[in-house]
Structure formats: structure tokens, C-alpha cells
Amino acid sequence: MLSRLNALREEARRSIAAADRSDQLKELRVKYLGKKGEITAILRGMKDIPPQDRPKVGSLANEIRGELERLIAEKEKELDERALEERLKREALDVTLPGDPRPLGSVHPLSAVIEQIEDIFIGMGFEVAEGPEVEWDEINFEALNIAQDHPARDMQDSFYITPRILLRTHTSGVQVRTLRSRKGEVPVRVIGPGKVYRRDEDDATHSHQFMQIEGLVVDSGVSMSELNGVLLAFARKMFGENQQIRLRPSYFPFTEPSAEVDISCIICGGRGCRTCKGTGWIEILGSGMVHPRVLEMAGYDSEKYTGFAFGMGVERIAMLKYGVDDIRHFYTNDLRFLRQYQSV
């Protein structure tokens, strides 16, 4: 029996050493160490062995079992490491190869201009307010002192949804909503950026949809000189510290007095060129003192409080700032155009 065990040990050693697959090792484990394996069979037949030989046979069988378990475990580890090495070679990546570049997006030039304008006015103590793009006719027109027969009410200028609801034609409705929400409290210093809609034919300088930013200040003793100071500070932050502005008399139903605001031409520095038509000035926005009737309709005492308002087209500012000659470039999603502003 001892010689049989030693022969079995040598046979198992050779078989385990020759195995080169995991399934072969599993078969060898079952063959030698399984419930019906050869080592197990010998141990179960101990009753047929003479009593004086049982200790030697049992000790050798257990020794061989332990050795075979160790050899199989070592062989399994060897095969696993070899398989991993082969897999790594097969799936190896050359990290020195150039990567697959992914195109990166960037902030749209109009969004960049809006953010810059917001930062400028926030730095002067303004808050940012918003309002709905679908607006009541009463807020969009009547609360701003625009009578029923005013040309701006004409269906040719506005997108009406119902006789009382339309797509807002300006962001001035934000000042109405802001004043009503404050319920007569001061000070009020807000700007309201957003989209507006008008029934315009799209061309190089007009669009049926564009962006505006409304500004409003209401408090005791607010004057035209403060309006001039705020807009001068804005122009210099936006277009350069050497900028000058001028206010020209104009008319808006919701301000009195009203003024168009020009900046010195950013192309020629005010000397006169084709861009400014030889005047040295370029118009950028409309402004004025809030009409007393607008204040009163919003719940403010016009004898006690005054205010000023201004409104600018974002596209107009962006076109001047970046030298764009056609407003449609901002909306056609031409990547050749947009890539020019990735660092803006």
C-alpha cells in the first residue's frame, strides 16, 4: 500500500506539472482529492489494511493529500498569472499615441456679453430680476403708459396669443413687476435681461427675436445726473476707460424726459468714420426719468419718489464690442463664427 501511495504521488506530481489549463486542474483535483478520488478511496479502505500498517499508511496518505492541494493551488496561481499577462498583452494600450480630441463648447458671445453687463451693474449695487416672456398686454403696455392707440400696440409690431396675452416686446415689463412686488418700498435698483419678440423682418440689423436688458432705479431724489453717471460708468467698463457718452432728447411713453444715449465711436475714437457716419458718435440705448404715471400705477408716490430707466439691446452691444456686422450671425449656429469667441 505504501508503494502504491508513492507511485500515486509521482503520477499526480507529473500530471499537475503538465497541466496548462484551469479545467485540467479541476479534473485532477477531482481525480485525486475528490469524494471518489484515489486518495479518498485509500483512506476509506483503511479497515482492510493490517492494524500495524494503518498508522504509516494514514500518515503518508494525509501527507500526499496536503502536498497535492499545495501543488494544485500553486499551479492555479501560476495559470492565473499567465492568463492575466496574456490578457494585458492582448489588451495593451499605447499611451504615447495621440488621443481622440473632443470638440469643446464655449460660452456664446451673447451670453458672455450679458454676463459682463450683469457684473458691471451688480458692481454698482443693482440686482438681477427676471420676468416671463409670455406677458399680459396690461403689463407690457398699459402699465408703461402706452395707450391703446399707440403704434407699438399694432398687430404688425407684436406677436399676440390672445387679445390680452402676447410675447413681450421689451423687458420693461420687468420694471412693472418689480415695482409692484416692492409695494412702494425703496430703494429699487434692478436690471432685467431677457428675450423679447417683435414682428420685424430679419436682416443685418433686425430680428424677430432678440435680447434686451432693462435697468431701473427708484428712490428719493433720483435725478438725470445720476442716470448720466451710471451710464458713463457702464460705457467705460464695457468699451474702455476713455469712452464718453452724450444724451440726446427723445421720446418714450414710459419716461419723461427721455434720451437716446450715444458713446464715442469705438472705431475712430470720435474723429468720424463710416461706422459712425462721420458724427463721432454711436447710439447704444434709450433712457429717461420714469414717467410719474408709471410710478403711480405701480403704487409709488410720484411726489415723493423719482427714478430713471434705461434699456439696451444685447446684440447691439455685442456687435459694437466684437465688430460683428450682421445680427444673424448670432443665431445661425455657424461654428466658424462661434469658434472665434471661445476665449471670450
Automatic annotation (TrEMBL):
Cofactor note (record): Binds 2 magnesium ions per tetramer.
Coiled-coil residues: 61-88
A GO cellular component annotation in the UniProt record: cytoplasm
Enzyme Commission code(s) on record: 6.1.1.20
Organism superkingdom: Bacteria
Catalytic activity: tRNA(Phe) + L-phenylalanine + ATP = L-phenylalanyl-tRNA(Phe) + AMP + diphosphate + H(+)
Residues holding Mg(2+): E256
Gene Ontology molecular function, alphabetical: ATP binding; catalytic activity, acting on a protein; magnesium ion binding; phenylalanine-tRNA ligase activity; transferase activity; tRNA binding
GO terms, biological process: phenylalanyl-tRNA aminoacylation
Domain Aminoacyl-transfer RNA synthetases class-II family profile span(s) in chain numbering: 111-340
One Pfam match: tRNA-synt_2d
Compartments where found: Cytoplasm
Keywords, alphabetical: Aminoacyl-tRNA synthetase, ATP-binding, Coiled coil, Cytoplasm, Ligase, Magnesium, Metal-binding, Nucleotide-binding, Protein biosynthesis
This protein's record includes keyword DNA damage: no
Needed co-factor(s): Mg(2+)
Keyword Amino-acid biosynthesis: no
Assembly and interaction partners: Tetramer of two alpha and two beta subunits.
Family: Belongs to the class-II aminoacyl-tRNA synthetase family. Phe-tRNA synthetase alpha subunit type 1 subfamily.
Identification of the protein by name: Phenylalanine--tRNA ligase alpha subunit
Organism field: Planifilum fulgidum
Lineage, top ranks: Bacteria, Bacillati, Bacillota, Bacilli, Bacillales
